[in-house]
Write a structure and sequence with these properties.
single chain, alpha+beta, GMP Synthetase, Chain A, domain 3, 3-stranded mixed β-sheet, two-stranded antiparallel ribbon, 4 helices
């Protein structure tokens, strides 16, 4: 074999540069933006559990927290009316007093959501 052929074989068998993994690219994003939002939503979920009665909590799901707005899905018109009354009657102010993060407002949105059954499968409730 000639030198050119040996050099080609050597280059082909040489270890290649490691490629960047998806996890390495997403780690800074998770730590700065998504992690903070999840932490804030978790704190708001605790407050929601403390301040909203169980019979109304069963009809709601915290959907998102963006730009200072907590979006809450409500599955029925009667529950929407009762929660809207609670929000305007002081629930939002009570949550603001206890929440240490940024100021926010509550936006109620009609919508269906699902719960998970004992085996971990998604189950719709109407």
């Amino acid at each position: 074999m000639n030198d050119l052929r040996l050099q080609t074989i050597f280059r082909q068998r040489a270890p290649r540069e490691s490629s960047t993994t998806l996890a390495a690219a997403l780690t800074p994003l998770m730590k700065t933006q998504i992690g903070r939002r999840v932490k804030q939503l978790g704190a708001l979920a605790k407050l929601w559990e403390e301040l909203v009665p169980q019979e109304l909590r069963d009809h709601t799901a915290l959907d998102s927290f963006r730009s200072g707005t907590l979006v809450v899905l409500v599955d029925s018109a009667s529950a929407m009316y009762r929660i809207k009354t609670m929000v305007s009657g002081g629930l939002e102010a009570a949550m603001r007093e206890r929440f240490t993060g940024a100021k926010f407002r509550i936006r109620l949105r009609p919508g269906q959501f699902y719960r998970v059954d004992s085996e971990g499968r998604q189950r719709f409730e109407f």
